[in-house]
Amino acid sequence: MSGPRRQPHWSRRIGHLLLMLAATAFLTIFLALPLAVVFVEAFRRGLHAYLSAIGQHEALMAIRLTLLVAAISVPLNVVFGVAAAWAIARFEFRGKALLGAFIDLPFSVSPVISGLVYVLLFGAQGWFGHWLELHDVKIIFAVPGLVLATIFITLPFVARELIPLMQSQGSDEEEAARVLGAGGWQMFFRVTLPNIRWALLYGVLLCNARAMGEFGAVSVVSGHIRGLTTTMPLEVEMLYNEYDYVGAFAVATLLALLALATLAIKALLEWRYGDEIAAHAPGGH
Amino acid sequence: MRRRILPGFGLSLGYALTYLGLIVLLPLVALAWKASGIGVAGMLHLLSSPRTLAALKLSFGGAILAAIINVCFGLLVAWVLVRYRFPGRRLFDALVDLPFALPTAVAGIALTALYAPNGWLGHWLMQRGIQIAYAPAGVILAMVFVGFPFVVRTLQPVLESLDRDVEEAAESLGASHAQTFFRVILPMLAPTLLTGFALALARAVGEYGSVIFIAGNIPMRSEIAPLLIVEKLEEFDYAGAAALGTVMLIASFALLILIAVLQRWSNRWAEQLQ
């Protein structure tokens, strides 16, 4: 810190106060108000209407499907993320930067395109459409399509969290374990995994939030078959388009609670394990 | 030689490449292949249709405008969160990430409920002759919402590492508050602001879920390009959808490269400042 600071002039204090008010007013109106409106609209007709909207068969099926899709896609992306991070952070090879860029790619593609590409592959007129039809396999307008689109969208989260961390941690401890005679998997489970556990959890948290909340990509491959291929965000859309606002906002509150829980756990992880999540400067371990 | 001590190179790289190839690359090749099916003439015909042009204009123009708005408000919010201490600061700081965490469909219906002509804020705005929902302004509003955290989160670490001695030097040399900000601080932040701008822009261009509810989706007026892709798919015009998707994909690639260049510049700049 630099030397003692002079007492700010009163006009400057007012300036600070105005800036503070402007920023907090913006955050309140622009971010907090949309969150509040979800809950107010959901309870507009009272608790009973809210509970009966949540208890609808279609809503329950949507919740089940959302959990199922996340339960398949998140673990697959965890395995991928760990494998990609291991290869990128621990070895030198040609095309490493390109591989990193391709891992980030799904973040910069419109969600609609993430769904579209699978329709072009597996849809009725797609590359494998005819073959799939002959063998009576449904991917598009069915659960496998939802899972594929979700995997595509959430693919970068875990890898992106792990790569910079593992790069900054270096491989000294792992090499020591090897020299002392640890097997490959032993080294992984006893050294690598404990070192990356909080960052891994952080990545899983973000990956899961996106997997459960994804709308655009799954909307393209879903076909909107009520009770069969509508995840919670799609159910919100269908209820909303049918002017069932209480129903739409009731399901939306569950997603909003998921978002709030995600933010709370995220803040907790950053506060408690910040050093073990963010990559520190090389040598700072 | 040292590297060889560690096991699993072949396995991890092989698995990562196979997975990435099947999930990302193969589908993108299918997209390009399908798009090439309509040929150059077909592509030009598609792109010159007024409805497509209007949608592309809204998606890109709206995203640019939204990113500019985000740079202004993002700078204000990041500045206040980094420099000032006030009750509730941590809560406001956590709130910045809300658009990242809130599913886009939920954001979409919430913004519509607020800004629709009979909505909480829309009602009041309507009386003053301002229509936000079901108009291009609504599209831009939703784009601002989804892009906002990118600017703040890009700026925060740089603002924290900004050396205050430079500001104090400028002020002790007689520079006014405004002069210090515009002549000293802003130039130092320029690369970071540009990076945040590009990130917010990239997010807004492809945004779908939060936009389609508030947009009203009136063709030629408030219809975004991703929605046009969905409509083409629903009409089983796969080639048209693929062609439009490819155009958007190429734009995304260009933005991705731009962001990488900007980030490198911004990092070098930040190192120089320290």
Describe this structure in words.
The complex is a heterodimer of chains A (285) and B (274). Chain A is mostly helical and 285 residues long. Helices cover 78% and strands 0% of the residues of chain A. The two termini of chain A are 25 Å apart. Residues 280-285 of chain A have low confidence and may be disordered. Chain B is mainly α. Chain B has one domain: MetI-like (MetI-like fold). Chain B has 13 helices and no strands. In chain B, helix 1 crosses helix 13 and helix 12 (225-234) runs antiparallel to helix 13. The longest helix of chain B is centred in the C-terminal third of the chain and has 36 residues, at 238-273. The two termini of chain B are 36 Å apart. The chains are: A mainly alpha (285), B mainly alpha (274). At the A-B interface, helix 1, helix 3, helix 4, helix 5 and helix 7 of A face helix 1, helix 3, helix 4, helix 5 and helix 6 of B.
What layout of secondary structure does this protein have?
The complex is a heterodimer of chains A (285) and B (274).
Chain A: H1 10-42, H2 46-54, H3 57-90, H4 96-108, H5 111-122, H6 129-134, H7 143-154, H8 156-169, H9 172-179, H10 184-213, H11 216-222, H12 232-241, H13 245-277
Chain B: H1 9-36, H2 39-48, H3 50-83, H4 89-95, H5 98-101, H6 104-115, H7 122-127, H8 136-161, H9 164-172, H10 177-206, H11 209-215, H12 225-234, H13 238-273
Overall pLDDT of chain A, averaged? 91
Count every beta strand of chain B, where a strand is a DSSP E run of 2 or more residues.
0
The helix/strand class of chain B is: mainly alpha
Total strands of chain A: the figure is 0
Count of distinct structural domains of chain B: 1
CATH class call of chain B: Mainly Alpha
Structural class of chain A: mainly alpha
Rg result of chain B: 23 Å
Assign an overall shape of chain A. Answer: globular
Indicate the proportion of strand residues of chain A: under 5%
- The CATH superfamily of chain B appears as MetI-like
